[in-house]
Structures are given as structure tokens and as C-alpha cells.
């Protein structure tokens, strides 16, 4: 069972993950704990505000409405990626949702469809309201989505969630039937979960923009030229047609065939074949390993496509050489 983070621990976790925060008013003691339980906590829930404007949205989420007292979440994520902390404790954000979804979140397994509202989510979920009209037209800037990812990862890391999967982070639409948030161009919960999982495989201060650079055509060309130089090592030691013919003529005596050594050669036929085989196997393994490593660092890279690009470039470089 996970006890909720204290205000200090939450702040430290967010800052450690590179989240820019603003502590709004008396957020540290602002909560709805007097009307219900806060904890154990099991996940993070993402919403959109159906509002525009940072100041007014933050105030709304802090104060609430006449029919729904605040805080309406724990943090408001602005378009520029700033997270305004507005509550610490139980907040009116999740409402009642599907208990089967909660069970899946706890087990970190695939989410079932939400088809009932029988469980109090305000007890078990941290909530972030993200400033967006929710009309499926208002865009989600990359800075805002990155803040969603980092804030979610910070809480998951602090609790040790995400070891078996990333379903510790869900959208309101995946919790309560009839809800649609978050939605709009530039946001999807599957993408958010994928990026949270990636962050959790790195230290908290990891910056993907500095670490994961796309593989350019120039990079591929460099790899190809290096591979071509390796291929060129065989040019001076390849069997010419006369050597091959003599090997064929000698085939009646297999043991003599493999012992054949061309004039001026430094090894017999078996030596040529074993060396060529081992070098080609090593070269192809190195190319595949490199492609896989690059794809792991940059999830936009398709390892198979990268290998194919490198092999085409090797063919071109070898032909030119």
C-alpha cells in the first residue's frame, strides 16, 4: 500500500524530474481530507480543464465551483509546461470510476474498458488538470505534454511504480464512463505512458533532447564507409577465377581442396573461408547491434529500417571503392 507523498517529497520529486513548478497560495494544506480518505494511492490521472488562460484556470482549480469545491486537482499544467501546485491531499478530480480499472492500475497490467462507476477515485489517484479547451481543436504544445510526462514519471519514480508497466498513469476517459479527457491534437495516453516508461529507464535528470539525437543520413554514410573499409580488407586476398577453377578441379580429393593455397597466398582455402565467414558474421552482428542500440536511444528509429539503410549504403560505398 502506497502512502501519499508529503508536500516536500512531492516538490522534490517534481524538481528532480526537471519539472518547473509554482507553489500556488496555501496549496500545502489545501485539500478535501475532511470528507473522505486520501490514500492509499495507486496512480496518476490526467485531465483537461475545458478552460483557457493560465491565471483563471489555476484559480478555478484551487477554489473549485459552487457545485464542486476545490481543490480540483493537485497540479495545473499550463501550456508552457509550468506546473502550478494547488492541492495536497484528497482533491475533487477523479470522481467515481471503474473498480476493474483500479485493479489493473494496481497490478500494472493492460486497462480494461471502463463500464461502471463504483469506486472512489479521489482516494487513490493524484490528479493533474491540463489547460486545454477539450474541443478536439485546441492543440497540446510539446512543452505541456513533456511536463505531463515528467510530472507523471516523478510520482511513479517516487512510489516505485512502473516496474511492471506504465498503466500507473491513466486518463480520466479511461476511468469514468462518458469522460473524454484528455483529448485534442498532440495528446494520447498511450504515447504519454510510453514516454513515462522511457523516462523511468533513465535517471530523473535525463533530458531526451540532449541525449537522443536522430540518426541522420550523414551518420548512416559514416557507418557505411567504416563497414566498406572492413569489406575492402578482403579485396587483396579474394580467390581469383584461376584459383577457384583449380579448387574445383581438385574436388575429387576433398582434403586436398581445403588444403589448396594459391601462389603467393598466406593461407589455404579453408583459412580463407573461415576467416571470411567469421569476419562477415562479426560485421553483420555489429551492424545489427549498433542499429538496435540507436533505436533504443531514439524510439523514432526503426531498427530494421536502419539496418536496411546501412546495408544499402555499404553496397554503394563498396561499389565506389
UniProtKB/TrEMBL annotation:
Species of origin: Streptomyces litchfieldiae
Report any Pfam family annotated for this entry: Amidase_2
Q: From the Swiss-Prot or TrEMBL record, give the protein name.
A: Peptidoglycan recognition family protein
The N-acetylmuramoyl-L-alanine amidase domain sits at 27-183
Under SMART domains, the record lists: Ami_2 (SM00644)
Which residue stretches, if any, does this entry annotate as coiled coil?
A: none
- Listed Gene3D superfamilies: Peptidoglycan recognition protein-like
- Tell me the domain of life: Bacteria
